[in-house]
Amino acid sequence: MEYVEAHRAAIEQRLAETVAAVEPSELSDELEHVVLAGGKRVRPTLTVLVCEAAGGDSEDAMGFAVGIELVHNASLVVDDIIDQSALRRGKASAWAAFDHGPALVASNGLLGEAFALFSRDPRAMECVTDALVELGEGEAIELVDRPETEEEYMELARRKTGALFRAAAELGAVAADADGRSVEALGEYAERVGVAFQIRDDVLDATAASEDLGKPAGIDEELDRPSIVRVTDRSPAELNALAERESERAMEALDSLDLPAGEAYDYLEYLAEFVVSREA
């Protein structure tokens, strides 16, 4: 979709400008290594296109879009340290490239730059802080409580992945000055997309090759980490169907708003389908 790619290119440029302006240069280099290594840019694209779908101008959401991508990358740095994963997006992860101390500093730097972008709007700050609380609780659940049932795992997925997707959509709605009902419905849509994304991610970790994923495959089994594959006796096909049901419920939340047709809405519909069919 040329329309979406134009938005992604704008996000990529703004990301590059943001991390290039960081001082000192050593920290800037580390942030560039993390942020500019690639990635689908799903969350920031979601932010700008939700803004458009809700009647706003995508440029008004660009700062929030960059911020949510910085938050996401900060969380990946920590994930890779916890997992001792040396590969991220086909390149050395932050700790593998710079060691653990500088990687943690880079994660903190990413969060600092992100919150500088959110600070102009109290509603944006609330969206992101709520998401970070959920994310932190999700990480703790994964490491300590270790969910053992499908229900417990779905709550983990909501917190660990769904929360940042929700924040990304809510930020777009806030940028469009949408009403509370619209912010909530768009947040629910994105949260369910995020849960579907995580289920599919777990299936791919168990079934795909490392070279296709751009990161080590089989890491859940190797690290004895909870995943939907490991806490249920369902087949990959059944788990994909579970992800598809979350995608359908996401679309129900989106359709409850009766948003106008257009390229932004088309992307939101496409995203709900893409997260359950992707191969990497």
TrEMBL record:
InterPro entries reported for this sequence: Isoprenoid_synthase_dom_sf (IPR008949), Polyprenyl_synt (IPR000092), Polyprenyl_synt_CS (IPR033749)
Any single GO BP term: isoprenoid biosynthetic process
The EC number(s) this enzyme carries: 2.5.1.10, 2.5.1.29
GO MF term set: (2E,6E)-farnesyl diphosphate synthase activity; geranylgeranyl diphosphate synthase activity; metal ion binding
CC cofactor: Mg(2+)
UniProt entry keywords in alphabetical sequence: Isoprene biosynthesis, Magnesium, Metal-binding, Transferase
PANTHER family linked: FARNESYL DIPHOSPHATE SYNTHASE
Stated family: Belongs to the FPP/GGPP synthase family.
Designated name of the protein: Bifunctional short chain isoprenyl diphosphate synthase
Gene of this entry: idsA1
